[in-house]
Specification:
This protein has 246 residues and is α/β, with parallel strands linked by helices. The protein is 34% helix and 18% strand. The chain has a 6-stranded parallel sheet with strand order 1-9-8-5-2-3. The protein has a 3-stranded antiparallel sheet with strand order 4-7-6. Strand 6 and strand 7 form a beta hairpin.
């Protein structure tokens, strides 16, 4: 059974604060598989508020994040200091405030050689995580948002079979919204993660969220929900609690 734990909130601030506290608690519980706690971050409108909440939940616990390895669920193909960069957002609102050591941060380095950048990012993930029986890396936590079209990370609707069926860790893709060139974790890696939390916030997302949670849903988020035994959705969008997907 593919279960969805739907956690409703009255507004974006309440959602971000609860997610930040829950995230800090997960990190405090620690990894139990001989590796540092690994997390993959996403961008989106809720990300900066989530990061601020995680920082606030960490006050007085200076060493809480010391053994966390930070990766990215997706990245825009822009320089790391570009305002569109998910890395820059995390650097400004999470890494610098928490004093995260550079060796624990794994940005996707933009270069002229896309294949090299993707391979390098994949190698870093495989070094820092354990793998399941199919060889897919198992992140301890993947944090995702959801767009108005139901996309997650940079996995968009109507993607070609090469994207949907890929067993790679990261993929270079072209998205329908600017900047179009992206790198994203694959569906296989999202399916293998120990925990996936989807933060759905903002107007215009109710229809996509309901479609994603419906039996037989066809959005990118629906594909993720159907591939996993359990997924947590935190949202300030009014939806019918279906409790399951697939």
């Amino acid at each position: 059974m593919n279960t969805v734990e739907l956690l409703p909130f009255p507004d974006a601030a309440s959602l971000a604060n609860a997610a930040g506290r829950r995230w800090a608690a997960e990190v405090a519980a620690g990894a139990t598989h001989g590796k540092a706690f690994s997390v993959a971050l996403s961008g989106g409108r809720i990300a900066s508020a989530l990061y601020a909440a995680a920082v606030a939940a960490s006050r007085g616990r200076g060493d809480l994040w010391r053994e966390v390895e930070f990766f990215f669920a997706d990245e825009r193909w822009v320089p790391l200091d570009d305002p569109e960069s998910n890395y820059r957002l995390a650097r400004e609102h999470l890494f610098d405030p928490l004093g995260i050591a550079d060796r624990r941060i794994h940005p996707i380095s933009v270069s002229a050689d896309t294949e090299f950048a993707v391979a390098q990012a994949q190698a870093e993930v495989l070094r820092a995580t354990t793998a399941n029986e199919d060889g897919d890396p198992m992140f301890d936590l993947v944090l995702l948002g959801m767009g108005e079209d139901g996309h997650v990370a940079s996995l968009f609707p109507d993607a070609p079979p090469a994207v949907v069926e890929s067993r790679a860790v990261y993929l270079a893709v072209i998205g329908p919204k600017p900047p179009p060139q992206r790198v994203t974790l694959s569906y296989a890696v999202l399916a293998a993660a120990r925990r996936v939390w989807v933060l759905v916030s903002g107007p215009g997302k109710g229809a996509a969220l309901e479609a994603s949670m419906a039996s037989g849903g066809r959005t990118p988020l629906a594909r993720v929900l159907q591939s996993r035994k359990h997924t947590v959705i935190l949202t300030d969008v009014a939806v019918i609690d279906r409790g399951r997907a697939g």
